[in-house]
Amino acid sequence: MLDIGLPELIALVVLALLIFGPDKLPKMIQDVSRTLRKIRQFSESAKEDIRSELGPEFKDFEFEDLNPKTFVRKHVLDKDELGLKEIRNGFDLRSEMSEVTDAVNGRDPEPAPHSAGGPDLLKKKEPLRPGERPPFDSDAT
User: Which ranges of the sequence are coiled-coil (predicted)?
Assistant: First the structure.
């Protein structure tokens, strides 16, 4: 939790000895451990009070679930009732990006496997002759 290594721990002990002295240090350690124990007991009793007030339908409620990352991981990503993995795997972003890049650079894109019929909007069109009207696309309006 605190990620304290051996050199840091030795430095803290030496610093505590210098600040409090060898005669007061054991009492300080007892006071700190007693305070931490009381804080843990208080938090556990508060959690139990909240669980009892919520009722039996929340008996398996965990306070860690209130963290948004934990909530999403537990309720959305693990069950995958919506088929999110299938949707995510269905996108082929590389082919989509290569089509857009080809269209921007003026190269003829390879036909995409998902374009079944319909006009190829990425294909470069012939320029309009003077006075010629652009084609009307009823789906675009």
Answer: none
* Domain count across the chain: 2
pLDDT at position 113 over 60: no
**pTM for this prediction:** 0.40
- Give me the residue label for tokens 């009732």: 81
Location of structure tokens 């208080």:
42
Domain assignment present for 132: no
As a whole number of angstroms, the distance between CA 66 and CA 64 comes to: 5
Q: Are 26 and 34 in contact (CB under 8 A)?
A: no
Average pLDDT across the chain, whole number:
77
CA 79, CA 66: separation in Å to the nearest integer? 18
